[in-house]
């Protein structure tokens, strides 16, 4: 220890030590600025200059550090110039921000998203059934489906109900901003219904008889949109859907 302190008193070792510390700080800085190419280039040039100077003055620690940093910076520079790598990093950042945004949707934003999704399903005549939980807990019912616990988004809902996918049969159950489960099957109503109704409509009617949830049904034959709530099943138009849906979701809310 004393020997190290005596060496440190020498201007040679002191210079070697302090320049090494500066280089470590510099290297840490351009690692933080990984995605900014200009910082990597500038740091690499400075490191190269330090290497030349260290060779001239025989500062061994600085020389070895500079050489290691130049190799590392070359690898980082290649990575930051690789389009696929940059796309992967930036895309993951954007996806994370989007997921965070999706999970904090206001009621108004959620309802508008559901309206757009329902209209898209109707236009393409994609059969769908979406149930929105209110005060009646549906945990026992969703056990027969596939648990998702995913943020509500239009792309995911369209994918779930796309014909041929594993989850397109059955219902999607939504609580607030979360898709709890997909491919959930309800006990259909035994009540005689006037008119032509398929299995989705009977299932929607059935869940409305035992809960206060609101269920949207899209017919795969006609694209017709229906709303099931408290033992009632009523059709609605494109123009009236959002208002009708919001009214049922807000029913009995204080």
What does this structure look like?
- By secondary structure, this protein is an alpha+beta fold.
- It is built from nine helices and seven strands; from the N terminus they run H-H-H-H-H-H-E-E-H-E-E-H-E-E-E-H.
- It has helices at residues 2-8, 11-32, 37-57, 60-81, 83-102, 107-123, 154-160, 199-210, 238-250, and strands at residues 128-132, 146-151, 171-175, 178-184, 214-218, 225-229, 232-236.
- It starts with a helix and ends with a helix.
Ends apart, CA distance between termini? 75 Å
Helix content: 55-70%
Query: What is the residue-mean pLDDT, rounded to a whole number?
Result: 78
How many H/I helices? 9
Uncertain runs with pLDDT below 50, 5 residues or more?
1-9, 82-87
**Total strand segments:** 7
Q: CATH superfamily membership of the largest domain, which one? A: DNA integrity scanning protein, DisA, N-terminal domain
Spatial strand arrangement across the major sheet: 2-4-3-1-5-6-7
CATH architecture of the largest domain: 3-Layer(aba) Sandwich
Write the layout of secondary structure elements.
Elements lengths: L1 H7 L2 H22 L4 H21 L2 H22 L1 H20 L4 H17 L4 E5 L13 E6 L2 H7 L10 E5 L2 E7 L14 H12 L3 E5 L6 E5 L2 E5 L1 H13 L4
Parallel strand pairs: 1-3
Antiparallel strand pairs: 1-5, 2-4, 3-4, 5-6, 6-7
Helix pairs in contact: 2-3, 2-4, 3-4, 6-7, 6-9
């Amino acid at each position: 220890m004393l020997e190290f302190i005596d060496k440190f008193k020498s201007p040679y070792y002191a210079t070697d030590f302090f320049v090494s510390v500066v280089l470590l700080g510099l290297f840490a800085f351009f690692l933080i600025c990984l995605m900014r190419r200009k910082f990597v280039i500038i740091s690499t040039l400075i490191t190269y200059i330090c290497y030349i100077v260290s060779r001239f003055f025989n500062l061994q620690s600085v020389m070895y550090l500079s050489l290691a940093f130049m190799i590392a910076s070359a690898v980082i520079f290649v990575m930051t110039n690789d389009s696929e790598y940059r796309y992967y990093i930036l895309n993951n950042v954007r996806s994370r921000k989007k997921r965070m945004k999706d999970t904090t949707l206001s009621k108004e934003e959620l309802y508008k998203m559901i309206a757009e999704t329902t209209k898209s399903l109707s236009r393409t005549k994609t059969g769908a059934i979406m149930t929105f939980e209110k005060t009646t807990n549906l945990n026992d019912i969703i056990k027969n489906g596939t648990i998702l616990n995913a943020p509500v988004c239009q792309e995911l809902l369209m994918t779930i109900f796309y014909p041929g996918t594993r989850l397109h049969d059955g219902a999607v159950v939504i609580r607030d901003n979360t898709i709890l489960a997909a491919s959930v099957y309800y006990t259909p109503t035994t009540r005689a219904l006037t008119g032509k109704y398929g299995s989705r409509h009977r299932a929607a009617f059935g869940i409305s008889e035992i809960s206060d949830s609101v269920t949207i049904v899209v017919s795969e034959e006609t694209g017709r949109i229906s709303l099931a709530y408290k033992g009632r099943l009523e059709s609605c138009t494109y123009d009236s859907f959002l208002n009708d849906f919001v009214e049922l979701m807000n029913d009995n809310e204080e």
